[in-house]
Amino acid sequence: MSPTYLEKHKPEKMRNAFNIGLFIVGWLSCVLLPEKWPYLVTLILLGIHFRWIGNWVKEREVLFITLLVGSIIDSVAGNLGLLHFPELAEPSRILPGWLACIWLLLGTTIRHGLAWCSSRLWLSAVAGASLGVIHYGLINNLSPVRLDQPETITLTIFVMIWMLVLPVLQIFSKIWLERYKRQVTGI
Question: How far is Cα 145 from Cα 136, in angstroms, rounded to an integer?
């Protein structure tokens, strides 16, 4: 597998900053743009990510598990009444598609933009808690999704969930990357 352009020409910190920038653009697009636009933007950003930052073969499991875990958490939260999805015509057992796009894009940050906290689980937990409160607080104010009342209790629940989930995702990411390296080297 040939290295990406940024792998050849830009330092790791530059790639990681670019990765976070792509995630923020994607997050804002998913939250603020109507209808089908979040899907298109997500596809474009994934293409940019895999062209200049990441590697599909190395990262596909991380993207899939992040999408799956985030979607399950939000779907269960919707079914428990912690999240309300009023833009869906009928009460739905699954989250809106644009919210699933956010989880897919978050998967691109696990080995890149969030790599700075992966070596220390406590730091990863703090990052997960911080990102959880920011994400759910902002979607409550910028999107049709609403948090259950009182919001502080709902946010606290999401903080506790994501302070556990992010470290687990990073542990799995390391395991899968080691497995990939063993497959490539034949060891």
Answer: 9
What are the residues whose beta carbons fall under 8 Å from the beta carbon of 12, sequence distance 6 or more?
none
pTM score, whole prediction:
0.90
119-132 CB burial, b ≥16 within 10 A, e <16: eeeeebbebbbebb
For 22-42, what is each residue's pLDDT tens digit?
999 999 999 999 889 999 999
DSSP of 48-76, one letter per residue? Answer: HHHHHT--HHHHHHHHHHHHHHHHHHHHH
Q: pLDDT for 66-122, tens place per residue?
A: 999 999 999 999 999 999 988 766 666 789 999 999 999 999 999 999 999 999 999
Task: Specify the length of the chain in residues.
Answer: 187
Q: Which amino acid is at 105?
A: L
